[in-house]
Design goal:
This protein is mainly α. Helices cover 73% and strands 0% of the residues. The protein contains eight helices and no strands. The chain is globular, with a radius of gyration of 20 Å. The N and C termini lie far apart (82 Å). The mean pLDDT is 83.
């Protein structure tokens, strides 16, 4: 009778491999923001302090790296909701998160054209991110409504729509500063009327 081999245990990613992956993602985001989606992957590896083989082991293609940068940014944005809610009063947490969302729009502007070349995948990628982002702002708005900082009739998605609208003018050189000012205008306009 043949003995069954035990299933190999799932190997945990080594700490240094995790650090390398994170460093590559951070450098790639900065490089894509600075030079566009066609930045040299070898330059990204060099700036991250890893060999090209390490970069390609984690991200076998440019598309894989672009998608990972986008997913990571969405995950950070979604996770920021809880961190900000614990650390700040409700209205300040909402404002801080909205400023992070503006930065997210900037990142998305840079890599969206490349992501849109994926056959069939961008819509699924965007659908997943939409749920995370919507959940985060809903939690923050609910908390701000409960504290009396903003109007009860405020729809969280209206704030997102306003910020997303800024992306339509992202071609102007000062759009990012303008978007950050818009956050304060939106917060002031969301306050309860006396």
């Amino acid at each position: 009778m043949s003995k069954k081999r035990p299933e190999p245990a799932q190997r945990k990613t080594r700490t240094d491999a995790q650090r390398n992956r994170q460093r590559i993602l951070e450098v790639a985001k900065e490089a894509f923001a600075r030079s566009g989606a066609n930045t040299s992957l070898d330059d990204i590896a060099k700036q991250a302090g890893v060999g090209a083989g390490t970069l390609y082991r984690h991200f076998p293609t440019r598309d894989a790296l672009l998608e990972a940068v986008y997913r990571t940014e969405v995950e950070k944005l979604a996770a920021a909701e809880q961190k900000l809610a614990r650390a700040m009063p409700p209205i300040e947490a909402l404002r801080a998160w909205m400023l992070l969302f503006v930065d997210h729009i900037a990142t998305k502007q840079i890599i969206a054209p490349a992501l849109n070349t994926f056959v069939g995948r961008p819509s699924k990628l965007y659908e997943g991110s939409r749920a995370q982002i919507t959940g985060a702002i809903q939690g923050l708005v609910k908390r701000a409504i409960e504290s009396g900082d903003i109007r009860r009739d405020l729809d969280p998605f209206d704030l997102l729509r306003a910020l997303i609208g800024v992306s339509n003018v992202a071609s102007s050189p000062d759009w990012l500063q303008s978007a950050r000012r818009l956050v304060d205008i939106l917060i002031m306009g969301s306050r309860p009327t006396k």
